[in-house]
Amino acid sequence: MGAEKKVMVAVGMNRYTEGLLTYATGIADTIGADLICTSIINTRDVDAVATIADMGYEVDGENYVAGIKA
After folding, report:
1. What is the model's pTM?
2. C-alpha span between 28 and 22 (Å, rounded)
3. 37 CB contacts (<8 Å, ≥6 apart)?
4. For the segment 3-60, what is each residue's pLDDT rounded down to a tens digit?
5. Whole-angstrom Cα distance, residue 31 to residue 18?
6. Residue 68's CB: how many other CB atoms inside 10 A?
7. Rounded to an integer, what distance in angstroms lies between the CA atom of residue 57 and that of residue 53?
8. Segments in the chain forming alpha helices (H)
């Protein structure tokens, strides 16, 4: 029984995502591994949204996270 090969890459929705995915895909292809992608939500962004909401603007962290997940 052979060892399972997996490459996991954590990405955020920013300008670096495409490069990270390209790099991780290359590694996974080279070693014959499965590629697992996971999305990262920056807690500083969620905290910033909460701060803005506390200032009286109509935003909240839950809607921000839901938008990122979508």
Report:
1. 0.56
2. 10
3. 8, 9, 11, 21, 24
4. 889 999 988 777 888 899 999 999 999 999 999 998 877 778 778 877 877 887 777 6
5. 20
6. 15
7. 5
8. 17-31, 43-54, 61-69
